[in-house]
Amino acid sequence: MRAVQYTQFGSADVLHIAELARPQPKDDEVIIEVTAAGVNYVDIRQRQGAYNRAETRVGGIDLPSIPGMQVVGIVVEAGPLADASLLGKNVVALVSKGAYAEYVAAPASMCVPVPDGVDDTQLAALPTQGLTAYFVLTASTLLQRGETVLVHAAAGGVGSLAVQIAKILGAGTVIATAATAAKRNFALSIGADIAVDYTQTAWTSAVIDATNGRGVDILLESIGGKVFEENFSCLAAFGRYVLFGSTQGVGDPFEARRLMTKAQSMTGFYLPVFFGRPDLIQQGLRFLIDQVAQGTLHAHVAAQFSLTEAAAAQQSLEDRNVIGAVVLRPKLR
Ligand SMILES: NC(=O)c1ccc[n+]([C@@H]2O[C@H](COP(=O)([O-])OP(=O)(O)OC[C@H]3O[C@@H](n4cnc5c(N)ncnc54)[C@H](OP(=O)(O)O)[C@@H]3O)[C@@H](O)[C@H]2O)c1
User: Fold this and answer.
1) Does the model's pTM come out above 0.70?
2) Separation of CA 178 and ligand 1 centre (Å)
3) Handedness of CA 40, 116, 303, 134 (dihedral sign)
4) Which atom of ligand 1 is nearest to the CA of 177?
5) Which end of the chain is least crowded, N or C, by CB within 10 Å?
6) How far is CA 192 from CA 138, 148, 175, 234, 276, in A?
């Protein structure tokens, strides 16, 4: 089979096409013939070797590696202990690696069948970006109806789904941040109430004004760098702050006792930890698939690429050119 692989860490040009044997299922796994694989910023951090460095380590990567954690496709083979009723079904699955390929092995417990007629391309953004958006609002911060939510980088894959999911779950005001006017307009078009340019020094004042001086109840943060410290000036009393990425570095050290003064909480999120909770993955994927099927959640796919264009696909995210998500299609040549 054809797969995208890297044998060393580095920039996007370490990605190359390899001819490899089709994977064999372990006892509890199925083999999926891939129709669409969503591209994540996480794939880029892994390829850069960030997860193998001490300061940003969240589970290392073994080389050679085939990237890709989110996949849609047909189940063509099942291991002896895997649910055989999945055979022949179109499924959405979360995998730990390997989705940038014609075939991938997935634990059967991470697969959810898809109803007929739902757009495969959109579904490819659900397993990593959609589940992250869903869990940071539910498991991590326990969003309550009417609460105010700040979504950073709201035109990105996770961000654009988080804006919509926050509204579906009953959030009050949703404040989006994004670096360009086109991205801010997009965030407004998908349901954000206010869009703020967080590259401007005084961006937090716009958030304070929009919340009548209170600040936000929930803050979703995947940026880091100087934004990490700036966020605290617009987090309300009892506010919950979830960290789930570091696109601009880890930021300065944080004195945890500062949280006491406004009874705030800070929590971290790392999706692979949820591999230990297939019940939550199943529940989250079913929620997301249902919302897409009903038309209440829309994953905006900005571009589709072939496997040979995987480097260009990742580079487009690194260059911050993408509004929504990008997807690989192994059948495209
Ligand atoms: N912890 C987990 O398990 C987990 C799971 C999934 C994703 N994540 C993290 O969540 C974040 C979003 O992931 P995604 O797949 O949705 O990414 P994405 O679609 O590429 O979106 C990332 C957004 O971050 C902003 N950004 C700021 N600085 C950037 C930089 N130097 N390079 C690239 N983008 C930058 C961009 O928005 P502006 O141009 O508007 O600034 C961009 O739209 C990433 O940090 C990723 O690592 C974490």
Assistant:
1) yes
2) 11
3) negative
4) 40
5) C
6) 18, 11, 6, 17, 33
